[in-house]
Amino acid sequence: MAEEKTYVADIDRSLYDFRNEDKDAYRIKEGLSEEIVEEISRGKNDPEWMHDFRMKSLRIFNEREMPDWGPSIEGLDMKNIVTYVRPNTKMNAEWSEVPEEIKDTFEKLGIPKAERESLAGVGAQYDSELVYHNVKKEVAEQGVIYTDLESAMHGPYAQMIEDHFMKLVPPTDHKFAALHGAVWSGGSFVYVPAGVSVEIPLQSYFRLNAPGAGQFEHTLIIVDEGAYLHFIEGCSAPKYNVANLHAGCVELFVGKNATIRYSTIENWSKNMYNLNTKRAKVEEGGKVEWISGSFGSHVSYLYPMSVLNGKGARSEFTGVTFAGRGQNLDTGCKVVHNAPDTSSYVNTRSISKSGGISTFRSSVVIGPKAENSKSSTSCQSLMLDGESRSDTIPAMDVRTNKADVGHEAKIGRISDDAVFYLMSRGVSEEDARALIVSGFADNVGKELPLEYAVEMNNLIRLEMKGAIG
């Protein structure tokens, strides 16, 4: 065990908490106004439809009330949030051209190494802009498009983007969807042609370095009939003593008999308000798989949603949430069955310690046309002490008699007997608890690529050590 303890001790939060000197090339003033949105739109050379979309979204944002049904977000004041920070570089297709300090950030996070060894393409975003984007030649030769969303709006796929952008998550959806529509910046566009299977994952990594800033990337993925894609999203930020905001948006269009697997490890620092929106529309015989690990942020509202629109469409959601001191993580998922013979499966684990609050919130809707549909939800919660809290809030709305719907929930604490047994075999109490928690979260680790499963287990160990600040 000496080696194991050394290994754990060698991993510290500095892997994520390091920060660069704030040398951004341009930082818009704090707050949100017509002038600020106009400035963002002008700086990005938006087509007319996008400029109008931003202004419409701003009006909706100003009309909507702040959400008051989940964790408190009183500490988030948009007057103090910088909505756009441009790093001191342009986007590059060659890693060697990225500025040294930004390159160093992603080197520390292991992104170039992962690209060389196990990824078909990588996009790296730093604050409000992508600084690097590249896709392997053999993948591009299959007709796969993987590029930054903003330049794609001015290319041959411009009409496709206009036809799909924020159609799944309209700005009227909620206040922060409207905010996203007004100030979005960065993100990726992926198109996989019919019948093409991208065997190696694509990845985008989002790093927010600037204090008091927001990140509003937009990911738009269209996978055509019979195609397959695994897309990985990673994100992190150093800790500051001021609020940061993440209000990104993910839209997945899954064609007939196509499959998207979307994996996320979110490791924001604990001054972050993570108000992200993710949604997939699945056509006949298609499938969406959500794999989600939520470890960071002060407050999270995060509920990936699957809309099963075609006969036989399927959705699977596998998630783990870890809430430590000062964290209130409200996570879960939504599924809407709109067609017959559709199916959904939800399997989640939530862990809370040191006064952290973890809430699992799910919504399953089975419409009147969704005959012979099946839905199963299983959520398990583990509290590691007497001061933590875990809640399960399921909702089921079934509009047909011909459906099979099930829900199972368990809430418990770490068994003292299990800890005692491991300690009797020479394991310290701290490591025993970390081993038990790792095993509890194992269902998510099995679904992740190896290097991300390792990162997730390291994050759990860091939390158990109390090292994440």
From TrEMBL:
What family does this belong to? Belongs to the iron-sulfur cluster assembly SufBD family.
The record's annotation in PANTHER family points to: FES CLUSTER ASSEMBLY PROTEIN SUF (PTHR30508), UPF0051 PROTEIN ABCI8, CHLOROPLASTIC-RELATED (PTHR30508:SF1)
Set out the biological process GO terms recorded for this chain's protein: iron-sulfur cluster assembly
Q: Which organism is it from?
A: Moryella indoligenes
The SUF system FeS cluster assembly SufBD N-terminal domain is annotated at 45-203
Spans through the membrane: none
One family from Pfam that matches here is SUFBD_core
Q: Where is the SUF system FeS cluster assembly SufBD core domain?
A: 206-440
Could you tell me what this protein is called?
A: Fe-S cluster assembly protein SufB
